[in-house]
Design a protein that fits this description.
With 278 residues, the chain is α/β, with parallel strands linked by helices. The protein has a single domain (20-269), classed as 3-Layer(aba) Sandwich (Rossmann fold). Helices cover 42% and strands 17% of the residues. The structure holds adenosine-5'-diphosphate and magnesium ion. Residues 29-30, 53, 57, 154 line the site of magnesium ion.
């Protein structure tokens, strides 16, 4: 970015945006995360896109050609930071590992978007708190609380990565939902969990919508305000198969509407503590 552009960007009043994208598998979370990241990048914003799915593919969609090893799979890092020895049973490890330098060291920058692949936080029924999970949760919390511009986090189905303190730093949770009962049920379940965690702004985005009837079905069935709708379009799948980002005009306009509605809603909401204060 040129100095002039950076100067203008810094001059322009913009609000920080920490967005968590959730929803049932296959609804379009990664697609939406990538498209929103691109839109913000195009505005000159500093974007950190986080892949917190156990099947990470956000970097692929964003065009990163190198293979990125998820942080949870980087044994040495996990061991070093949590002072654990992986594989040991009942081992003692640090619950507050150092994480402040990880984003800058491990995020891969591609076409102006920083991508960080976290790997999954596997939530066992037993309430597993293994070292990799602890590291990733602490890291996510640190990023949400300290990053100054745009952070968009592509999350696996729900809110398991977020703790109470972290939830407060999330400006909005966007739950992607497609026409269909299971996707709606998952979305409403995520809504309740996110609300109980203290996230104030929780919205839905309808995806893979083919007609007015489906759009209305979603608006009726989801417990959240719908920010906008993305139509079903074969070109999105074709781009996916090519490993590129879909860019057709309709889609770009749909994403722009979603982004603008999101910003309007967030501005309207009761101001919570600014994340800088944490
Ligand atoms: N609006 C859409 N129309 C057609 N296909 C879509 C649409 N949105 C997403 N897809 C396709 O659906 C599949 C799942 O999308 P993805 O973003 O990977 O979902 P998730 O991250 O929620 O699992 C991909 O093949 C993607 O290209
Ligand atoms: Mg995905």
């Amino acid at each position: 970015m040129s100095r002039v552009k950076r100067y203008l960007r810094d001059l322009a009043p913009h609000t920080m945006m920490k967005i968590a994208v959730a929803g049932k598998g296959g609804v379009g979370k990664t697609t939406l995360t990538a498209l929103l990241s691109t839109l913000y990048r195009n505005e000159g914003r500093t974007v950190l896109a986080i892949d917190a799915d156990s099947n990470p593919n956000l970097a692929d969609i964003l065009g990163v050609s190198t293979h990125i090893v998820p942080l949870t799979d980087q044994k040495e890092l996990v061991e070093e930071r949590t002072q654990s020895t992986l594989g040991g049973f009942g081992g003692i490890f640090k619950l507050n590992p150092r994480v402040d330098d990880i984003a800058s060291k491990y995020a891969v920058e591609h076409q102006g978007i920083k991508v960080l692949v976290m790997g999954s936080v596997k939530v066992a029924e037993s309430g597993c708190a293994c070292p990799a999970n602890v590291l990733v949760k602490n890291l996510l919390s640190h990023i949400l609380l300290t990053e100054k511009d745009v952070v968009i986090c592509d999350m696996e189905a729900g809110v398991e990565h977020l703790g109470r303190g972290t939830a407060k730093a999330v400006d909005a949770m966007v739950v992607v939902v497609e026409p269909g009962r299971r996707s709606v049920e998952t979305a409403n379940r995520i809504y309740r969990l996110a609300r109980d965690l203290g996230i104030q702004n929780i919205f839905a985005v309808g995806n893979k919508v083919r007609n007015q009837e489906e759009k209305e079905f979603l608006e009726d069935m989801v417990d959240m305000e719908v920010l906008g709708t993305i139509m079903y379009d074969e070109r999105i799948i074709e781009s996916d198969m090519r490993g590129s980002l879909p860019q057709h005009d309709n889609l770009v306009s749909e994403i722009r509407v979603i982004k603008e509605n999101l910003e309007t809603q967030v501005k309207k909401s009761v101001p919570t503590k600014n994340s800088n204060e944490y």
